[in-house]
Request: fold
Amino acid sequence: MPPRRQPTARHARLGAELKKLREAAGLKATEAASLLGVNSVQMSQMESGIAGVSEERLRCLAAHYACTDVELLSALVAMATGRTRGWWEEYRGALPNSFLDLSELEHHASFRWDVDFLHVPGLLQTEDYAHGLFAYVNPDFPDSERARRVEHRMRRRVVIERSEPVPYTAVIHEAALRIRVGSRPASRAQLNRILEMSEADGVTVRVIPFDLDDFGGAGSAMVYAGGPVPQLDTVVRDGPNGTVFIDAAAQLGHFRTLFRRVEAASLEPERSRDFIRTLAKEL
Reply:
């Protein structure tokens, strides 16, 4: 397969998983390349996601690596052979690659968890809310660029609105619900949108109120996307230098535990809806 100019996060993840399997087998890259009948450059390209890998080669590598995890191997084969061109590809070259990688990750997710403290999660945002965020963060963007980003964010909502939605849980702090991104009517509409979606199949919304005692989890904001097997889960976090995709096993375990703690501290779904209704009436 010819090298790619720009591997997506999904391509890079497949390569990273192949590298993990090789290292677990105690083999050097040159040794694995020799077993496969390729050179070290080709092996490096496969493990970095720059070059694709066929199902035959993937299964051959798995055999050499003594990988007996059938479910993981099947998931890797699906990643290697999938040729779906998603709607997000329409924005390639027009939006940052991280926007597209997140869309692709959401599309393939087996479940999705969000924890947010300062903003309403992207999948629950209204168009006015998203426009207000982009306008504030990037005031110098031309209108066309801002409109493109808002449009992309609105299209991402398909994963929880389609006929077979991705199971979705959002834990939102009261601060995010009270911060007015836009006008009073726009803020009310945003709260009503959250209420509407909280009643949808597969969607759970929970609120963390200000008056919760002994809560120190304000640094636990995350997007957690479930893979076909737990080893292929991914955490997405926004950092000072951009979006970071996290897939190390120890860190995934840490974020799973952190999410469960935050979820346990939040209000039950029905109480959360009542809480949001009260806030909407106050506006």
User: Anything to note?
Assistant: The chain has 13 helices and six strands. The chain has a mean pLDDT of 94.
